[in-house]
Amino acid sequence: MSARPRPAALPRRAEFPDGFVFGTATSAYQIEGQSFGGAGPTHWDAFARRAGAIADATDGAIACDHYHRYARDLDLAAAFDAYRFSVNWARIQPEGRGAANPEGLDFYDRLSDAILQRDLQPHLTLYHWELPQALAETGGWQNRDTAARFGDFAEMIMRRIGDRMTSVATVNEPACVAWIGHFEGSHAPGLQSRAAAARAMHHILLGHAEALERLRALGQRDLGIVLNFEAIAAVSDSDADHDAATRRDAIMNRWYVEAITKARYPAPALAGLGGDLPERWQDDMARIAAPLDWLGVNYYTRARVAAAPDQPWPGLRLADGPLAKTAMGWEIYPEGLHEVLMRLKRDYIADLPLRITENGAAFDDRVQDGGVADSARCAFFAGHLRQVLRAIGDGVNVGAYFAWSLLDNFEWAFGHEKRFGLVHVDFTSQKRTPKQSYHLLRQALA
Ligand code: IFM
Fold first, then answer.
1. ∠ CA(77), CA(78), CA(81), 5° rounding?
2. Residue 365 Cα, ligand 1 centroid: separation in angstroms?
3. 83 three-class SS
4. Virtual torsion, Cα 401, 407, 410, 416, nearest 10 deg
5. Which atom belonging to ligand 1 lies closest to the Cα atom of 328?
6. CATH number for region 13-444
């Protein structure tokens, strides 16, 4: 193999508190292959058929063919302590309601056993974005009934595999589901409507509450939700830019964490969305704020925000930043992870256990001489893990870190073009090639 540049040193396991858990994360639609095993269509399949919706005009029909290759994939995941994965609602209930697809239940049964056989802790997410298309057609997350259907699904799958899960998260990144899917329109279902976004922002949290109640009733332990946070910076000192940053922060960062910890929505977001929320939304807030056992934090970048008075509410735009960027065009800002963790402790959760449930970067990786020299990704992990250590030193209760992602996968609107994996996937041959980051993380955390 050719000589490779030496990446920044990764922290060693011994620098973390005893019992700190390292893992990798994936999600169902991004890796499994929706066309296998009797899964029903999802709103991502419908969205992917729209011209221009997905950068390379692909969808999740095959993805990483993990449905058939899960055993080998889990062998790779077994280099770490834990594996975060999600279940695919439309694989369990192809119509989003009613009887289960036995093949789907059997698949997750086998998968759960295979995770445990490799001495990996299974950390499950119930909803990582693949809404069954039948439910999308009755309004999706705009429809209050979807929250109750999600509760049914949660109960159905947990009755089958709940006994083997270390932890369960209800929803992954509700901000992306609601805002990017219903206001910005670049994720399924591809709407661009403030009213649709407001309803989805409330109903996805109601779905979280429904699932949480059903799981508590089943006696399921270690329950949480996974929220994405971005560091926020106004592009200038002007009042207008600061106000725009405050609105963005309220929509993307504060809405969900404030709801689940304080049973309220933040005023700068309510100012624009309040009139579009479902009637009597206040009556749901106590349920939405039911106590959790842990909070998952996904962190990737910072948003630089400028006022855009010519645009409809929230009247802002995201501006390019001066820092080095990943292939997504996202600024690499490890200090932002420390900022987010300190703020959560100070303003929202005190000592509630936190897990970093996603952190990672896409780069233009190439297989050369049988390996992938992804030193930029190694440096990314090194920088962010240092900030986790710093936050722990500053008293934040962080107990786990999951790298996003185990495998290159279907990166939503970017199709298969953006590679976040520790393991390279050739989407033609389905060959897996562990990257330098995989080898170095494994050594550092041995
Ligand atoms: O791939 C996604 C994942 O599904 C949710 N969090 C962000 C990742 C990178 O964009």
1. 100
2. 17
3. strand
4. 130
5. 10
6. 3.20.20.80
Q: Domain spans of the chain?
A: 13-444
- Beta partners for 433? 424
Does the beta carbon of 27 sit less than 6 angstroms from any atom of ligand 1?
A: yes
User: Looking at residue 78, what is its pLDDT?
Assistant: 98
Ligand 1 mean position to 140 CA, how many Å?
21
What pLDDT is recorded for position 2?
Answer: 43
What is the tens place of the pLDDT at every residue in 31-62?
Answer: 999 999 999 999 999 999 999 999 999 999 99
298 lines ligand 1 (CB under 6 A): yes
- What are the catalytic residues? 173, 358
Cis bond before residue 189 (omega within 30° of 0): yes
Spacing, Cα 362 to ligand 1 middle (Å): 10
Question: Which pLDDT value is given to residue 7?
Answer: 53
Phi and psi at residue 75, to the nearest 5°? -60, -40
State whether the beta carbon of 143 lies less than 6 angstroms from ligand 1: no
3-state helix, strand, coil in the chain (%, to 5): 45, 20, 40
pTM to 2 decimal places = 0.98
pLDDT at position 1, please? 41
Alpha helices for 307-435 (secondary structure H): 335-343, 375-393
Amino acid at residue number 137: E
432, 371 Cβ separation under 8 angstroms: no
Phi-psi region of 114 (alpha: psi -120 to 50; beta: other; left: phi over 0): alpha
Q: Which atom of ligand 1 is nearest to the CA of 129?
A: 4
Question: Ligand 1 in contact with 358 (CB < 6 A)?
Answer: yes
Q: Which residues contact 364 (CB under 8 A, 6 or more apart)?
A: 327, 419
Measured in Å, residue 173 CA sits from the centre of ligand 1 at: 9
Q: Which one, of 97, 105, 220, lies nearest residue 160 by Cα?
A: 105
Q: Which residues of the chain have pLDDT under 70?
A: 1-8
